[in-house]
Amino acid sequence: MTDPVETAPEPDGAAASGSLEALADVSSAVEGGAGLHEVVRAASRALGAGVALLDAASSVLAVACRSPEEERSVLGGKGGAGSLELRVAERRVGELRYRERGNASPPDGLVRMVGSVIALEVERSAAPERATEAAVARFLEDVLSRRTTDRDNILARGRELGADLGAGAGVLVVRANARQPEEGDWRARVLVAAERAARRVASGALAAAVECVAGRPPGGGREGRGRGSPGDGEIVIVAPGADPATPERAASAVLGELRGRFPKHGFAVGRSRSATDPADLYRAGAEALLAANVAEAGGHELLAFEETGSYRLLLSAMSEDPGELERFYSETIAPLADYDDQYETALLLTLEAYLDFDGSVAGTAQRLFTHRHTIRYRLERVRELTGFDVGSSDGRERLGLGLKAMRVLGFAPPAGPATERGAEAGRVPREEPNA
User: Which of helix, strand or coil describes residue 73?
Assistant: First the structure.
């Protein structure tokens, strides 16, 4: 009886040769400058799979699929689709998604090799765009922080970036906050959507997440209380146009676009008046920042500088000497914010409601669904911590200005679970005897 003949496994060299040939097709497309679409098609042939390439913001760059159904499966991660994060020097540049067409998945080693080549091509192709984005960010920072004040210089740099600022421009400050965990760089997607919407209204609009805006030092001010740093989703947009109504139309277009594209996010958009002289753009930036701070503090999605009321009186202090405004805040409201932050109390919330109700303890208690004795106790703590008596007109005036300074500077008051939006639903007003 003849022994069965065993089929010898394919030599490692043959498998490596096949992988190298597949990788060579991708490399040839890169070396020939064929572009991302052809590189992705070569990757699809090499892997024997439907392939989709996404950038770091999860926007689709190129797709190589045989049918719309396959494309949906690849992009949606269905039917055993795989993915590979693309990195260059530890920096995420995109994602490769793929779904095999046969019974066998492409070898992990081959996928990684193909992914490395594609990552480098994504990095190379995005370099000019990133350079432009960096140039826009530097320009906006220089102008709004008054590092660049010469009119001709501002006009020349604007023209280099495609913006004609000679006829006037307005400034928008856009704040975005995710209400639930988000995948990928969602802030980059917000920036792209906001810029696209602004350009529909104002040709040549410039948008960037910037480190410094007029009237606020880099980082947002007092540590622990600054709002609106780029890491928190703040975007600055300069909307050029001769029509004074351009900033208003641009703000409405941006908010409408963001609402539609990001329904699970919260937004606050502040807009300035139109600046007819490019040298006044720093002033417009301060106006938009003030409006955004007041809008966010008041729960508004859109607020114009003209609608900020008495807050406008503090604009010059914010623009010319924010340090003095911070000192006033520190001497009035900061002790209450620190106390609330440490002990999870509600002194600031109580003070704000008390001032809103013109010093009425009963009205404050009704607003906060809290016993009047508790309100009086909290107001006494306010006096002990600040040295200002809310029972006097001078004390109320100083503390009220302190609250305004807090909002103008963009300092976020402490907010525990009991004071988060929506948490009041379970509260029931207490029945109490007439006092």
Answer: helix
**What tens digit of pLDDT does each residue of 47-103 get?**
889 999 998 878 888 899 999 888 988 988 877 788 999 988 777 888 999 998 877
- Which residues lie below 8 Å from residue 190, measured CB to CB, with a gap of 6+? 174, 176, 233, 235, 258, 262, 265
Distances (CA, A) of 95 to 87, 154, 403: 9, 38, 46
Q: In this structure, which amino acid lies at residue 165?
A: L
Angle at 275 between CA 273 and CA 278, to 5 degrees: 155
Report, as an integer, the average pLDDT of 205-209.
Answer: 92
d(CA 244, CA 3): 93
Weakest-pLDDT range from 143-152, 183-192, 201-210, 241-250: 183-192
Note the pTM of the prediction, 2 decimals: 0.61
Site of tokens 């779904």: 99
Count CB neighbours of 152 within 10 A.
9
Helices 151-160 and 108-144 cross at an angle (nearest 10°) of 160
Distance (Å, whole) CA 421 – CA 415 = 9
Residues with Cβ < 8 Å from 409, sequence gap 6 or more? 216, 221, 222, 293, 318, 322, 325, 326, 329
Rg (CA), the chain: 29
With vertex at residue 35, the alpha carbon angle to CA 96 and CA 188, rounded to the nearest 5 degrees, is 55
pLDDT in tens, 211-235: 655 545 434 444 434 443 333 458 9
Give me the count of residues in the chain. 435
User: 93-110: b or e for each residue (b if 16 or more CB lie within 10 Å)?
Assistant: bbbbbbbbeeeeebeeeb
Which residues face 157 on adjacent strands?
A: none
CB atoms within 10 A of CB 188: 16
Q: How far apart are CA 2 and CA 96, in angstroms?
A: 50
Measure the CA dihedral 58/62/68/71, to 10°: -50
